[in-house]
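Posting here for the record, re: flavin mononucleotide.
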Amino acid sequence: MSALPTSLTLGSLRVETPVVLAPMAGITNAAYRRLCAEQGAGLYVSEMITSRGLVEGDETTQKMLVFDELETVRSVQLYGTDPVYIGKAVEILCADHGVAHVDLNFGCPVPKVTRKGGGGALPWKRGLLGEILEHAVSAAAPYDVPVTMKTRKGLDDDHLTYLDAGRIAQESGVAAIALHGRTVQQAYSGQADWDAIAALVAHVDLPVLGNGDIWEAADALRMVEQTGAAGVVVGRGCLGRPWLFRDLAAAFNGEAVATLPALGEVRTMMRRHAELLSEHMGEERGCKEFRKHVAWYLKGFPAGGELRHQLALVDSLATLDDLLDGLDPDATFPERELGTPRGRQGAPRKKVALPDGWLDDTDGRGSHLREDANETTGG
Ligand SMILES: Cc1cc2nc3c(=O)[nH]c(=O)nc-3n(C[C@H](O)[C@H](O)[C@H](O)COP(=O)(O)O)c2cc1C
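Prediction output follows.
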């Protein structure tokens, strides 16, 4: 058993607790990052933005690049398949947006993305991966900004890429590699393979961040103990549960805390979330964005079908207040939900969508992959 890490070092960046909020498209916007940061002390990564969108000044991309005024460590996940675009995008993030950390997405399993060779498909092209990482690292170096990468085990069990990716990351000067212990083919189904995380830790000399199926703070400790990971990346476990970051910070501090808020406190958290979204996006859009979080917050609580339905249609903070009043503040936390999966799970894909002939060559240097400016589907 390895000693528990108490902080995380990514190049010049020191994170007070070895916990990272996973980039999640449509979720980890400025409001949600602030909400989570109010609870814990980790690193909070943005939704994925595309390098081409950034370089070409695409409007959707610009809108996504907002930060909360209290967000002192700006952490952005970038997607791309072209080393030159990635390099330029990193330069823009560092020079114009004061970003302190850039993460690169090599894990997205969405067919629309992998079909073009992006996300989780890209690490198959070892040469191209190296080129992209080198461009990113050298663009960030003058600003002393660490670059990390996030990936999966591989395309499928017969086409694993993560050990090579780790070696290439290390050779390219990347500050850490995060591994989601699933293949692209698995998408979000089945169980994350923490043994793969341990294998990567043994294979490389750079910090490895473990990702996949951390539902409680105790899972995070178990993961680092089992794998020797330098820290954890937490995604679905915090959906509708921003206080998980409080528990995680406490756990890495040696205190076993499991926050079990009564419905009254959950109500307060829901209001805060909707309020922050409204501050950042305006009330109408903010409330619309909030709708997708309702079912996660109320999972396992007694709320009633009609009230849930109304909450999922909320269009103003005043309506939200009225509806929240209908929830019993004294209802206790549904403990049977602890340790259970939340968010997307789904089924494995029959086949991974890839560009024609993708598997024929493992280098890919100099290839020209089509990269959309406004790709926002994420991981
Ligand atoms: C709604 C959603 C959106 C996601 N978007 C991204 C993304 O933009 N970039 C990325 O690298 N991963 C993305 N992911 C994957 C997560 O970062 C994480 O790797 C995955 O959910 C496994 O971790 P977990 O078991 O803690 O959820 C997304 C996941 C979800 C559920």
